[in-house]
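Exercise 7.
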Amino acid sequence: MAKDYSSIVVSSRARLSRCFADVPFPSKMTEEDGRKIIKKVYNVLSVDDEDFKLYTMKEIPKSEAYIMQEKHLISHDLIENHESGAVLINEDETISIMINEEDHLREQCILKGLNIETAYDIINKIDDKICKKLDVAYDDNLGYLTSCITNVGTGLRVSVMLFLPGLTLLGKMDNITSNLKKNGFTVRGAYGEVTDSLGYMYQISNERTLGKTEQEYINQLKAIVVQICDMEVDARKQLIVTREAEVKDTVFRAFGILTNCYILKIEEFMRLAGEIKMGISLNLIRMKDNHIIDKLFNTCAPYSLCAAAGGMVKTSEDEQKFRAMYVSNILKNNRVK
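Solution. The predicted structure, written as C-alpha coordinates, is:
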Protein backbone atom coordinates (compact mmCIF):
# COMPACT_ATOMS: atom_id res chain seq x y z
CA MET A 1 0.00 0.00 0.00
CA ALA A 2 1.29 3.45 -0.93
CA LYS A 3 2.45 5.63 1.94
CA ASP A 4 0.40 8.68 2.87
CA TYR A 5 2.42 11.86 2.41
CA SER A 6 -0.59 14.19 2.34
CA SER A 7 0.55 16.12 5.43
CA ILE A 8 3.97 16.71 3.82
CA VAL A 9 3.47 17.20 0.08
CA VAL A 10 1.47 20.34 -0.68
CA SER A 11 1.54 20.43 -4.49
CA SER A 12 3.32 19.31 -7.65
CA ARG A 13 4.09 21.38 -10.72
CA ALA A 14 5.27 20.65 -14.26
CA ARG A 15 6.34 23.57 -16.47
CA LEU A 16 7.50 23.58 -20.09
CA SER A 17 9.35 26.47 -21.76
CA ARG A 18 9.02 26.98 -25.50
CA CYS A 19 10.01 29.54 -28.12
CA PHE A 20 8.89 29.79 -31.76
CA ALA A 21 11.28 29.46 -34.68
CA ASP A 22 9.51 31.94 -36.98
CA VAL A 23 9.47 34.86 -34.52
CA PRO A 24 12.41 36.66 -32.86
CA PHE A 25 12.99 35.57 -29.26
CA PRO A 26 11.28 37.81 -26.64
CA SER A 27 14.29 40.09 -26.07
CA LYS A 28 14.31 40.99 -29.80
CA MET A 29 10.67 40.77 -30.87
CA THR A 30 8.37 43.72 -31.49
CA GLU A 31 5.04 44.46 -29.84
CA GLU A 32 3.35 43.34 -33.05
CA ASP A 33 5.24 40.02 -32.90
CA GLY A 34 3.97 39.56 -29.38
CA ARG A 35 0.35 40.20 -30.35
CA LYS A 36 0.64 37.69 -33.22
CA ILE A 37 1.94 35.03 -30.81
CA ILE A 38 -0.99 35.62 -28.45
CA LYS A 39 -3.46 35.21 -31.29
CA LYS A 40 -1.76 32.07 -32.67
CA VAL A 41 -1.59 30.29 -29.30
CA TYR A 42 -5.14 31.26 -28.37
CA ASN A 43 -6.47 30.00 -31.71
CA VAL A 44 -4.71 26.64 -31.25
CA LEU A 45 -5.98 26.02 -27.73
CA SER A 46 -9.44 27.55 -28.00
CA VAL A 47 -10.49 24.99 -30.65
CA ASP A 48 -10.62 22.05 -28.25
CA ASP A 49 -9.97 23.62 -24.87
CA GLU A 50 -12.83 26.09 -24.43
CA ASP A 51 -12.04 25.98 -20.72
CA PHE A 52 -9.22 28.51 -21.19
CA LYS A 53 -9.74 32.22 -20.63
CA LEU A 54 -7.31 34.78 -22.06
CA TYR A 55 -6.00 37.67 -19.95
CA THR A 56 -3.70 40.35 -21.34
CA MET A 57 -1.45 42.34 -19.02
CA LYS A 58 -2.39 45.47 -20.94
CA GLU A 59 -6.09 45.15 -20.15
CA ILE A 60 -6.52 43.54 -16.72
CA PRO A 61 -6.20 45.64 -13.54
CA LYS A 62 -2.80 45.44 -11.87
CA SER A 63 -4.43 44.17 -8.67
CA GLU A 64 -5.94 41.20 -10.57
CA ALA A 65 -2.55 40.41 -12.08
CA TYR A 66 -0.91 40.41 -8.65
CA ILE A 67 -3.56 38.01 -7.33
CA MET A 68 -2.64 35.68 -10.18
CA GLN A 69 1.01 35.99 -9.16
CA GLU A 70 0.15 35.15 -5.54
CA LYS A 71 -1.58 32.02 -6.81
CA HIS A 72 1.60 31.11 -8.76
CA LEU A 73 -0.29 31.37 -12.05
CA ILE A 74 1.94 34.06 -13.54
CA SER A 75 5.30 35.71 -12.82
CA HIS A 76 6.30 39.27 -12.00
CA ASP A 77 8.18 39.43 -15.32
CA LEU A 78 4.94 38.74 -17.19
CA ILE A 79 3.10 41.47 -15.26
CA GLU A 80 5.80 43.94 -16.30
CA ASN A 81 5.27 43.13 -19.99
CA HIS A 82 2.36 45.55 -20.49
CA GLU A 83 2.69 45.57 -24.29
CA SER A 84 2.41 41.88 -25.19
CA GLY A 85 2.23 39.84 -21.99
CA ALA A 86 -0.75 37.49 -21.67
CA VAL A 87 -1.87 34.30 -19.98
CA LEU A 88 -4.37 31.54 -20.66
CA ILE A 89 -5.86 30.05 -17.48
CA ASN A 90 -8.31 27.17 -17.20
CA GLU A 91 -11.43 27.28 -15.05
CA ASP A 92 -10.07 25.48 -11.98
CA GLU A 93 -6.73 27.32 -12.23
CA THR A 94 -4.64 24.16 -12.42
CA ILE A 95 -3.22 25.15 -15.83
CA SER A 96 -1.72 28.45 -16.96
CA ILE A 97 0.03 29.26 -20.24
CA MET A 98 2.12 32.42 -19.91
CA ILE A 99 2.69 34.11 -23.27
CA ASN A 100 5.66 36.40 -23.96
CA GLU A 101 7.41 36.12 -20.63
CA GLU A 102 11.16 35.35 -20.72
CA ASP A 103 10.35 32.71 -23.34
CA HIS A 104 7.45 32.88 -25.77
CA LEU A 105 5.61 30.26 -23.75
CA ARG A 106 5.72 29.01 -20.17
CA GLU A 107 3.15 26.21 -19.91
CA GLN A 108 2.44 24.87 -16.44
CA CYS A 109 0.14 22.56 -14.52
CA ILE A 110 -0.10 22.61 -10.71
CA LEU A 111 -1.89 19.82 -8.84
CA LYS A 112 -2.36 19.08 -5.15
CA GLY A 113 -0.29 16.34 -3.54
CA LEU A 114 2.44 14.18 -5.03
CA ASN A 115 1.24 14.16 -8.64
CA ILE A 116 4.29 15.05 -10.74
CA GLU A 117 3.55 12.50 -13.49
CA THR A 118 -0.09 13.55 -13.83
CA ALA A 119 0.83 17.25 -13.92
CA TYR A 120 3.38 16.52 -16.65
CA ASP A 121 0.95 14.37 -18.67
CA ILE A 122 -1.67 17.14 -18.62
CA ILE A 123 0.69 19.92 -19.71
CA ASN A 124 2.47 17.68 -22.22
CA LYS A 125 -0.81 17.01 -24.07
CA ILE A 126 -1.36 20.75 -24.36
CA ASP A 127 2.24 21.22 -25.50
CA ASP A 128 1.76 18.53 -28.17
CA LYS A 129 -1.16 20.48 -29.65
CA ILE A 130 0.94 23.64 -29.79
CA CYS A 131 3.99 21.91 -31.28
CA LYS A 132 1.92 20.16 -33.96
CA LYS A 133 0.33 23.36 -35.24
CA LEU A 134 3.01 26.00 -34.61
CA ASP A 135 6.70 26.16 -35.54
CA VAL A 136 8.52 25.62 -32.26
CA ALA A 137 12.31 26.24 -32.11
CA TYR A 138 14.03 22.85 -31.92
CA ASP A 139 17.52 21.48 -32.56
CA ASP A 140 18.18 17.77 -33.18
CA ASN A 141 21.22 17.81 -30.88
CA LEU A 142 20.21 20.28 -28.16
CA GLY A 143 16.46 19.82 -28.06
CA TYR A 144 14.09 22.76 -27.52
CA LEU A 145 15.74 26.17 -27.94
CA THR A 146 14.73 28.84 -25.46
CA SER A 147 15.53 32.46 -24.71
CA CYS A 148 16.62 31.47 -21.20
CA ILE A 149 19.70 29.26 -21.63
CA THR A 150 18.93 27.24 -18.50
CA ASN A 151 15.77 25.91 -20.16
CA VAL A 152 17.43 24.59 -23.34
CA GLY A 153 16.92 20.85 -23.87
CA THR A 154 13.69 19.44 -22.54
CA GLY A 155 12.52 22.85 -21.34
CA LEU A 156 11.02 20.97 -18.39
CA ARG A 157 10.98 22.14 -14.80
CA VAL A 158 9.27 19.84 -12.35
CA SER A 159 8.84 20.91 -8.75
CA VAL A 160 7.18 19.81 -5.54
CA MET A 161 6.14 22.01 -2.61
CA LEU A 162 6.90 20.34 0.72
CA PHE A 163 5.99 21.14 4.32
CA LEU A 164 9.00 20.18 6.43
CA PRO A 165 8.76 21.38 10.05
CA GLY A 166 10.46 18.29 11.48
CA LEU A 167 13.60 18.49 9.35
CA THR A 168 13.72 22.27 9.82
CA LEU A 169 13.50 22.20 13.62
CA LEU A 170 16.07 19.41 13.84
CA GLY A 171 18.48 21.53 11.77
CA LYS A 172 18.78 19.11 8.86
CA MET A 173 17.64 21.29 5.96
CA ASP A 174 21.03 22.92 5.24
CA ASN A 175 22.62 19.54 4.64
CA ILE A 176 19.66 18.35 2.52
CA THR A 177 19.77 21.54 0.44
CA SER A 178 23.52 21.18 -0.12
CA ASN A 179 23.19 17.56 -1.26
CA LEU A 180 20.31 18.40 -3.59
CA LYS A 181 22.31 21.18 -5.22
CA LYS A 182 25.19 18.78 -5.88
CA ASN A 183 22.72 16.53 -7.71
CA GLY A 184 21.27 19.25 -9.91
CA PHE A 185 18.26 20.25 -7.83
CA THR A 186 17.45 23.53 -6.12
CA VAL A 187 15.50 24.39 -2.96
CA ARG A 188 13.52 27.61 -2.53
CA GLY A 189 10.95 29.03 -0.16
CA ALA A 190 7.29 29.08 -1.11
CA TYR A 191 7.62 32.45 -2.84
CA GLY A 192 11.21 32.16 -4.08
CA GLU A 193 14.61 32.48 -2.45
CA VAL A 194 13.82 35.80 -0.75
CA THR A 195 11.12 34.24 1.42
CA ASP A 196 13.55 31.64 2.77
CA SER A 197 11.46 28.88 4.38
CA LEU A 198 8.57 30.85 5.88
CA GLY A 199 5.97 28.46 7.21
CA TYR A 200 8.38 25.50 6.83
CA MET A 201 7.56 25.48 3.09
CA TYR A 202 10.17 24.38 0.55
CA GLN A 203 9.97 24.05 -3.22
CA ILE A 204 12.31 21.45 -4.73
CA SER A 205 12.91 21.49 -8.49
CA ASN A 206 15.41 20.40 -11.13
CA GLU A 207 18.04 22.99 -12.08
CA ARG A 208 19.10 21.25 -15.30
CA THR A 209 16.91 20.68 -18.34
CA LEU A 210 19.56 19.28 -20.69
CA GLY A 211 21.12 15.81 -20.70
CA LYS A 212 18.20 13.63 -19.58
CA THR A 213 14.72 12.81 -20.82
CA GLU A 214 11.59 14.31 -19.34
CA GLN A 215 10.73 11.00 -17.69
CA GLU A 216 14.19 10.73 -16.14
CA TYR A 217 13.84 14.19 -14.55
CA ILE A 218 10.39 13.25 -13.22
CA ASN A 219 11.56 9.91 -11.83
CA GLN A 220 14.60 11.48 -10.19
CA LEU A 221 12.59 14.23 -8.50
CA LYS A 222 9.93 11.80 -7.30
CA ALA A 223 12.57 9.50 -5.79
CA ILE A 224 14.15 12.46 -3.99
CA VAL A 225 10.79 13.69 -2.70
CA VAL A 226 9.83 10.25 -1.37
CA GLN A 227 13.17 10.01 0.41
CA ILE A 228 12.73 13.45 1.99
CA CYS A 229 9.15 12.60 3.00
CA ASP A 230 10.35 9.47 4.80
CA MET A 231 13.01 11.57 6.55
CA GLU A 232 10.34 14.09 7.57
CA VAL A 233 8.13 11.32 9.00
CA ASP A 234 11.05 10.15 11.16
CA ALA A 235 11.90 13.74 12.15
CA ARG A 236 8.35 14.38 13.33
CA LYS A 237 8.43 11.23 15.47
CA GLN A 238 11.73 12.38 16.96
CA LEU A 239 10.29 15.80 17.75
CA ILE A 240 7.42 14.28 19.70
CA VAL A 241 9.74 11.98 21.64
CA THR A 242 12.45 14.53 22.46
CA ARG A 243 10.78 17.95 22.35
CA GLU A 244 7.04 17.44 22.78
CA ALA A 245 6.52 20.16 25.39
CA GLU A 246 8.52 22.70 23.38
CA VAL A 247 6.65 21.90 20.16
CA LYS A 248 3.25 22.04 21.89
CA ASP A 249 4.16 25.40 23.37
CA THR A 250 5.16 26.69 19.92
CA VAL A 251 1.90 25.48 18.36
CA PHE A 252 -0.42 26.89 21.02
CA ARG A 253 1.47 30.18 21.27
CA ALA A 254 1.03 30.53 17.50
CA PHE A 255 -2.70 29.79 17.81
CA GLY A 256 -3.01 32.26 20.67
CA ILE A 257 -1.34 35.06 18.73
CA LEU A 258 -3.25 34.43 15.50
CA THR A 259 -6.61 34.39 17.29
CA ASN A 260 -5.94 37.47 19.44
CA CYS A 261 -3.61 39.87 17.62
CA TYR A 262 -4.84 43.24 16.34
CA ILE A 263 -2.45 43.66 13.41
CA LEU A 264 -0.79 40.90 11.41
CA LYS A 265 1.94 41.26 8.79
CA ILE A 266 2.17 38.66 6.04
CA GLU A 267 5.61 37.39 7.16
CA GLU A 268 4.44 36.88 10.74
CA PHE A 269 1.29 35.19 9.51
CA MET A 270 3.31 32.75 7.34
CA ARG A 271 5.56 31.83 10.26
CA LEU A 272 2.78 31.36 12.81
CA ALA A 273 0.42 29.61 10.40
CA GLY A 274 3.22 27.16 9.60
CA GLU A 275 3.53 26.39 13.30
CA ILE A 276 -0.21 25.66 13.56
CA LYS A 277 0.00 23.49 10.45
CA MET A 278 2.78 21.60 12.21
CA GLY A 279 0.49 21.12 15.21
CA ILE A 280 -2.26 19.74 12.96
CA SER A 281 0.15 17.32 11.27
CA LEU A 282 1.37 16.08 14.68
CA ASN A 283 -2.20 15.77 16.07
CA LEU A 284 -1.44 18.34 18.76
CA ILE A 285 -4.30 20.62 17.74
CA ARG A 286 -7.54 19.57 16.04
CA MET A 287 -9.32 21.42 13.24
CA LYS A 288 -12.58 20.65 11.43
CA ASP A 289 -10.67 21.12 8.17
CA ASN A 290 -7.09 19.85 8.22
CA HIS A 291 -6.34 21.90 5.09
CA ILE A 292 -7.50 25.19 6.62
CA ILE A 293 -3.96 26.58 6.87
CA ASP A 294 -3.26 25.89 3.18
CA LYS A 295 -6.43 27.79 2.31
CA LEU A 296 -5.36 30.68 4.52
CA PHE A 297 -1.92 30.75 2.85
CA ASN A 298 -3.75 31.42 -0.42
CA THR A 299 -6.26 34.00 0.81
CA CYS A 300 -4.03 36.00 3.16
CA ALA A 301 -1.46 37.15 0.61
CA PRO A 302 -1.73 40.97 0.24
CA TYR A 303 -3.71 41.35 -3.01
CA SER A 304 -5.90 38.29 -2.45
CA LEU A 305 -6.71 39.60 1.03
CA CYS A 306 -7.62 43.04 -0.35
CA ALA A 307 -10.02 41.37 -2.76
CA ALA A 308 -11.59 39.42 0.12
CA ALA A 309 -11.93 42.64 2.10
CA GLY A 310 -14.12 44.13 -0.63
CA GLY A 311 -12.79 47.68 -0.51
CA MET A 312 -12.20 47.84 3.24
CA VAL A 313 -8.42 47.98 2.79
CA LYS A 314 -6.95 51.36 1.87
CA THR A 315 -3.56 51.33 3.62
CA SER A 316 -0.97 48.76 4.71
CA GLU A 317 -2.24 49.17 8.30
CA ASP A 318 -5.80 48.41 7.12
CA GLU A 319 -4.44 45.28 5.43
CA GLN A 320 -2.73 44.11 8.62
CA LYS A 321 -5.84 44.80 10.74
CA PHE A 322 -8.12 42.96 8.32
CA ARG A 323 -5.72 40.00 8.09
CA ALA A 324 -5.68 39.71 11.89
CA MET A 325 -9.48 39.78 12.11
CA TYR A 326 -9.95 37.44 9.14
CA VAL A 327 -7.49 34.82 10.38
CA SER A 328 -8.77 35.00 13.96
CA ASN A 329 -12.39 34.39 12.96
CA ILE A 330 -11.56 31.45 10.69
CA LEU A 331 -9.27 29.71 13.18
CA LYS A 332 -11.63 30.18 16.15
CA ASN A 333 -14.56 28.77 14.18
CA ASN A 334 -12.49 25.87 12.84
CA ARG A 335 -10.89 24.55 16.00
CA VAL A 336 -12.24 21.38 17.58
CA LYS A 337 -11.86 21.62 21.37
